[in-house]
């Protein structure tokens, strides 16, 4: 019988100064997955920083999934971690409307196949943050580069 134990910790802080408003965030998670004949554990973190000057907000985020620790290791070791870097800018037209541009690079280790979003996401239920780090690219070790452009309006 499978057993999954997971925990995470998140913290954020917003501060302002004469140069604008800044936010810093941090998330850490640890997952232990045990099956009848094997176990696996993995830790990951995400950190982000944004700074708003006037109507423009500059953002950067970095996430990393460590190599897993498994009781049944594959030949050649685990080497199944990944690193993710995103940089972006938003321009706020109002409190409800903004446009954005984001560049993201996912760097998978040799045996990793992380992607940018979960495969089971729907448009309205799309995941953000560290939980998005679980999807698969379809091939181990494949890196991903993505550019996102969009407009968001809150009703």
Characterise the protein shown here.
- The protein is built from no helices and 8 strands.
- It has 155 residues and is mainly β.
- The chain has one domain (3-153): Porin (Beta Barrel), CATH 2.40.160.
- Strands 1, 2, 3, 4, 5, 6, 7 and 8 form an 8-stranded antiparallel sheet that branches.
- The radius of gyration is 18 Å and the shape is elongated.
- The chain starts with a strand and ends with a strand.
What structural keywords apply?
mainly beta, Porin, 8 strands
Question: Quick summary of this structure?
Answer:
The chain has 155 residues and is mostly beta strands. It has strands at 3-17, 20-34, 39-53, 56-65, 69-70, 82-92, 97-108, 144-153.
* Beta content: over 45%
Largest sheet: 8 strands, antiparallel
Overall CATH class: Mainly Beta
CATH homologous superfamily (4th level) name:
Porin
Domain Porin: 5-110
Protein name: Porin
Pfam families: Porin_4
InterPro entries: Gram_neg_porin_domain (IPR033900), Porin_dom_sf (IPR023614)
Task: Give me the secondary-structure topology.
Blueprint: E1 3-17, E2 20-34, E3 39-53, E4 56-65, E5 69-70, E6 82-92, E7 97-108, E8 144-153
Antiparallel strand pairs: 1-2, 2-3, 3-4, 3-5, 4-6, 6-7, 7-8
């Amino acid at each position: 019988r499978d057993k999954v134990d997971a925990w995470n910790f998140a913290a954020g802080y917003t501060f302002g100064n004469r140069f604008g408003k800044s936010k810093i965030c941090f998330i850490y998670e640890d997952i232990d997955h045990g099956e009848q004949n094997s176990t696996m554990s993995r830790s990951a973190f995400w950190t982000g920083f944004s700074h708003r000057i006037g109507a423009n907000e500059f953002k950067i985020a970095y996430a990393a999934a460590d190599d897993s620790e498994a009781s049944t290791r594959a030949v050649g070791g685990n080497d199944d971690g990944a690193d993710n870097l995103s940089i972006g800018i938003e321009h706020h037209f109002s409190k409800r409307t903004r446009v954005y541009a984001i560049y993201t690079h996912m760097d998978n280790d040799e045996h990793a196949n992380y992607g940018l979003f979960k495969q089971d996401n729907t448009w309205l239920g799309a995941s953000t943050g560290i939980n998005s780090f679980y999807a698969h690219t379809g091939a181990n070790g494949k890196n991903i580069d993505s550019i996102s452009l969009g407009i968001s309006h809150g009703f």
